[in-house]
Prior knowledge:
This protein has 3 domains: 2-51 and 245-318 and 439-487, FAD/NAD(P)-binding domain (3-Layer(bba) Sandwich), CATH 3.50.50.60; 115-224, protoporphyrinogen ix oxidase, domain 3 (Orthogonal Bundle), CATH 1.10.3110; 321-432, Protoporphyrinogen oxidase, mitochondrial, domain 2 (Polyamine Oxidase, Chain A, domain 2), CATH 3.90.660. α1 runs parallel beside α9 and α4 (157-165) runs antiparallel to α5 (167-182). The protein is α+β, with helices and mostly antiparallel strands. The chain contains 16 helices and 21 strands. The two termini are 18 Å apart.
Amino acid sequence: MRGGHATPKPDAERRTAVVVGGGISGLIAARELAAAGLAVTVLEASNAWGGCVGSHVVAGLRLDSGAESFATRSTAVADLARELGLADKIVAPHPGGAWVQLPDGPQELPKTGVLGIPANPWDPEVRRSLGLAGAIRASLDRWLPASVGTSSDVTSVSSLVRTRMGKRVLERLVSPVVGGVHSADPALLDVDMVAPALRAGIRTHGSLAAAVAAQRNAAKSSIAGAASAPAKAGSAVAGLRGGMNTLVDALVADLRERGVQLLSGQHARDVVKTQEGWQVAAGNATYDAGRLVVALDGPAAVGLLEKSLPELSRLRPAPGPLVSLVTMVVDLPQLDGRPRGTGILVAPETPGIKAKALTHATAKWDWLADEAGPGTHVLRLSYGRREQAGGGADLVLDDDSLLAAALEDASALLTVPVTQADIVDWDVVRWAGALPFAAVGHKQRVAQVRQLCAAAEGLTVVGGWLAGNGLAAVVADTRAQLGVERADGSPIL
Ligand SMILES: Cc1cc2nc3c(=O)[nH]c(=O)nc-3n(C[C@H](O)[C@H](O)[C@H](O)COP(=O)(O)OP(=O)(O)OC[C@H]3O[C@@H](n4cnc5c(N)ncnc54)[C@H](O)[C@@H]3O)c2cc1C
């Protein structure tokens, strides 16, 4: 490092690495590099670690301000949590399950799906939601050849679901879930990014329903291995007692123990390739290292690297949508009965509701209900959904308007009046562009980005825009990207 900060000079004998971005992918990359013996510096623009795995305090409760659970379709996150000593903190959500608000009223969301795609169209919950004609159409999936929906002309989530299971599965089950998780219309999203391995599963298991069932079974066994396996292991997600943000605390503590230099408030603004490796300019300092990891969102990563790798410019992804979260802590014992289970997803065309989802956090996580105490509830409503390719349609409201909308939406969705007088405390958190927008064709773009970056010596690019949205994808992919190099015999340097 030159100028600015008086940071200790790394041991001249040790290979050096700079990681740009202190979100979950950057922190994991730093851990892998430190474990391989490198002297690592992490540069984070904000003053908080963890990126989208953030926290805030509302009414004295420390709550997740972004990610609040992880998918259990693989063991990636649970393995990391175990390594960090958090095995006994892994918890399943309350088994009550979630609901979906459709234009014709609320329905329980079937518990056996992946992204809302059912494992069995004749499951009573699914059958109720689809109606007889919808269930018959959905079960056609079993008789269609495995080639249907797995060819290269099926590219979006909606084309896969519509082709194999029909319109009602798409509109009544998949659109609300995809809107809630990815903040976008399923017609815009690359199926192989958003539903990884599902199309391969159709080829292996013969139908979409069977591929979904196989993923759900894998999820059960992945979480069953945890030290405190949840009593009911049927959930597709799990969380951590204390919130997902405690994973970041544990990672940061682990990195400090390993001697990693963690520098927050350091916005990287320039990167150049040097003879010895890479040089990053951030704040009023420059950082030299043999190894560079860029762990940012897609547009920021391309912006930082395009001077060194001009061909990256044409692969710049569209920015993700603006997502605004309104968290309200309310004193409202009428909600003790969990009127909508763990929460409710809203189908896009539902009249009169602006939110895309409501999480009843104290109904979802027992540890949080215990912390909040009887009669006190945590409600989180999310706003902002990409309905058109290319962006521009994000819902932008000021805090007070968002709170007004949240009170109105919560009252309608929970069928219990929620008023300003019930609020103990509230907060708004905005995530601008943090959710990657995996537009159709993104999977191919990812392969091209990876190819370009692999050709630049000493560079690794990681993060949700390449791995796919969600902690399960990001954790597994980041470790694979750094691990692969070691397994290949081309060591991390
Ligand atoms: C509101 C919300 C809710 C979510 N809920 C879930 C969930 O429940 N379960 C789940 O599995 N996933 C969830 N996700 C997705 C998941 O959180 C992300 O996929 C994952 O955290 C992305 O990690 P990342 O490291 O790729 O990126 P990020 O978390 O975006 O980290 C990037 C970091 O880089 C920093 N940075 C940006 N520019 C610079 C720069 N120039 N110099 C230095 N630093 C810079 C940023 O400040 C940030 O800290 C959610 C995401 C959001 C936004």
